[in-house]
Amino acid sequence: MNTVHELIDEIDHGSMPDAERRKVLLAATGVLGGVGLLAAAYPFIASLEPSARELAQGGPVLSDISTLAVGELRTVAWRGKPVWLMRRSDEMVHALQQPNPALADPLSKRSEQPASCVNATRSERPELLVAVGICTHLGCSPVLHLDDGALNAELHAPGGFLCPCHGSRFDLAGRVVKNVPAPTNLEIPDYRFTTATTVQIG
Ligand code: FES
């Protein structure tokens, strides 16, 4: 088989038949075209790489909260975990802001949350709870209760969360009560508002 140099020599010296020369030139044009396409596509491919990496690691998740009703709890998946978004009523927020001796860690000193959420509602905006919906005891999923008289009396609030596995109880900011198996408050993930009605988790 001829080498590339030999083919170029034959073309240069006109020793190659016209039909053969046309085939060689077409093949060369195809190869150069392919190289050109790859060069042009590289910036686009490179721009995709971080996104693919983020997706593999569980990148940020956006949620539109414009349709989230008061008292409604929505769950979104982030890094394989359920993350709750709940819009609290003024009454709920007011209750969270009152001291409650039943809480084990009311100031969230032993709990996981971003610095911006170290406050009574454990949130950036008082009305919106964003929390990982996994019990800090053994990982069950607590359930929202809005009409449980005993729970509301303990929390001095119109609602809270009850873990069905071993009975841990949390207020509407994810703060755990004393003397239950769960050792800490529910985790609050990193999040921020990208628009007035869009939350980015992670
Ligand atoms: S897993 Fe929730 S109380 Fe045990």
What descriptors fit this protein?
disordered N terminus; 2 domains; three-stranded antiparallel sheet; Rieske Iron-sulfur Protein
Q: What's the helix and strand layout?
A:
Elements: H1 4-12, H2 18-57, E1 61-64, E2 73-78, E3 81-87, H3 90-96, E4 128-132, E5 143-145, H4 149-155, E6 160-162, E7 169-170, E8 191-195, E9 198-201
Antiparallel strand pairs: 1-9, 2-3, 3-4, 5-6, 6-7, 8-9
Domain Rieske: 99-200
Keywords: 2Fe-2S, Cell membrane, Disulfide bond, Electron transport, Iron, Iron-sulfur, Membrane, Metal-binding, Translocase, Transmembrane, Transmembrane helix, Transport
Catalytic activity: a quinol + 2 Fe(III)-[cytochrome c](out) = a quinone + 2 Fe(II)-[cytochrome c](out) + 2 H(+)(out)
How would you characterize the overall build of this protein?
With about 200 residues, the chain is of the alpha+beta class. The protein has two domains: about 5-55, no CATH class; about 60-200, Rieske Iron-sulfur Protein (3-layer Sandwich), CATH 2.102.10.10. Helix content is about 30%, strand content about 20%. It contains four helices and nine strands; from the N terminus they run H-H-E-E-E-H-E-E-H-E-E-E-E. The chain has helices at about 5-10, 20-55, 90-95, 150-155, and strands at about 60-65, 75-80, 80-85, 130, 145, 160, 170, 190-195, 200. It has a three-stranded antiparallel β-sheet, with no helix packed on it. A three-stranded antiparallel β-sheet has the order 2-3-4, with no helix packed on it. Strand 6 (about 160) and strand 7 (about 170) form a beta hairpin. FE2/S2 (inorganic) cluster binds near residues 137, 138, 165 and 182. FE2/S2 (inorganic) cluster binds near residues 135, 138, 166, 168 and 181.
